[in-house]
Amino acid sequence: MKEQLLEKIANREAKIGVIGLGYVGLPLVHEFSTQGFNVTGFDIDDRKVDALNAGKSYIGHIPSEQIAGHINSGRFKATSDFDKMVETDCLIICVPTPLTEMKEPDMSYIEGTAKSIAQRLRKGHLVALESTTYPGTTREVVLPILTAGKDLEVGKDFFLAFSPEREDPANKSFSTRTIPKVVGGLTPACTELADALYSSIVERTVVVSSAEIAESAKLLENIYRSVNIALVNELKMLFSRMGIDVWEVIRAASTKPFGYHAFYPGPGLGGHCIPIDPFYLSWKAKEFDFATRFIELAGEINTSIPYYVVDRVALALNEKQKSVKGSKVFVLGVAYKPDVDDIRESPAMRIIELLMERGAVVTYNDPFIPKLPMMRKYNIPKTSVDFTADSLSGADCVLIVTDHALYKKEAQFIVDNSSVVVDTRNATSGASENRDKIVSA
């Protein structure tokens, strides 16, 4: 089985299935198709399937021309018919791993996908999980589902591995192909096959000794960022009380050529990984009677930042002898990071909700998010308003949540036309005049 699949992969004859056609799955579709593989994309959302088969992308940094090229070449097709999994040789799982309301892992997407695969699993299949999760998921959750009621041995009859996604949407310095790919299988044969598969589309793979190591490496990457962001956010709040500019402090510290890596404060954590991944490990740690104090403290600090931002808005309005209730707050930017159309776990949603709960009249502008989508935790039916002098001057407070390039370029325009600007990203650093209007948050 192993040798046959290795040969198929080497000859680009292996048929690839990508389950979940979002910010992780779609870049994989592009890379495999580009390297000459035939790819089937699976998704339960028929709107996505129809758009892709029409050659249209719904992700900003993936051009429709790329998708259309793969469709027209015959190397890619999308479907919601999961029975077509039997036609594939390799299946890659790229489904969400959110948290429950109690901040515990929601494994329903992984478990549901594994059950769908189990119904179609055959000898010779390679299954790779990319969804970020806690150590042990591949072996303890996915494997039992795949083998339930079947006389199939992992590493011999079929193969199972974990290879964490490392996508960074709109990062022009790195792409799916150039980011090193960590690979760990349940057996040496599983690892060898997964390494062969990913080596065909990325410049470098990093082979580790087990799926658990690969799962843990991904969590370490994001916990490292979460803890350091929490630290700098805490310092931001302290320095604000002390009348010290945290951004100037960071600039000064960054001149040290060793032993320091700059992290930057903001309005809260966003994106699918950093706000969620640490809680997966802290939850798993309880099984071993271990308290992950750094992780949990960082989570508490980062979760509190949207409340701090709203308090800063209230303070800014108070200086203008206005209350939050009834005041018009114009939010600039709702994407979780600059210049992307990705709103997953964006702190903007919680900030907007908190402002509305206090009675503020909230509008927003985001050149990448024309309409706030319905999300698992939020349903705020608002559409982006124009970014104009009138929309700025008509607000009692302008709140910068995302530092899109547009806002940084137009920093002076924003400050000149606003009554007061609460800036959570230092986006107005380029404004040299009327800086008394700016409140750092």
Order of helices and strands: HEHEHHEEHEHEEHEHHHHEHEHEHHEE
Question: How many domains comprise the coordinates?
Answer: 2
Please, what is the oligomeric state?
Answer: single chain
- Report the C-alpha radius of gyration, rounded: 24 Å
CATH architecture of the largest domain: 3-Layer(aba) Sandwich
Q: Supply the CATH superfamily name of the largest domain.
A: NAD(P)-binding Rossmann-like Domain
Got a strand count? 13
- What low-confidence regions span 5 or more consecutive residues with pLDDT below 50? none
Question: Could you tell me the mean pLDDT?
Answer: 95
What is the end-to-end distance? 58 Å
Which labels suit this protein?
single chain, 441 residues, alpha/beta, Rossmann fold, 2 domains, eight-stranded mixed β-sheet, five-stranded parallel β-sheet, 15 helices, 13 strands
How would you explain this protein's 3D organization?
The protein is an alpha/beta fold and 441 residues long. It folds into 2 domains: 2-209, NAD(P)-binding Rossmann-like Domain (Rossmann fold); 224-440, NAD(P)-binding Rossmann-like Domain (Rossmann fold). It is built from 15 helices and 13 strands. The strands form 2 sheets. The chain has an 8-stranded mixed β-sheet with strand order 3-2-1-4-5-6-7-8, sandwiched between helices. Strands 10-9-11-12-13 form a 5-stranded parallel β-sheet, with helices on one face. Strand 4 (90-93), helix 5 and strand 5 (126-129) form a beta-alpha-beta unit. Helix 5 (108-118) packs parallel to helix 6 (137-147), helix 8 (211-242) runs parallel beside helix 11 and helix 11 (293-319) crosses helix 12 (347-357). The longest helix is centred in the middle third of the chain and has 32 residues, at 211-242. The termini are far apart. The model has no long low-confidence stretch (mean pLDDT 95).
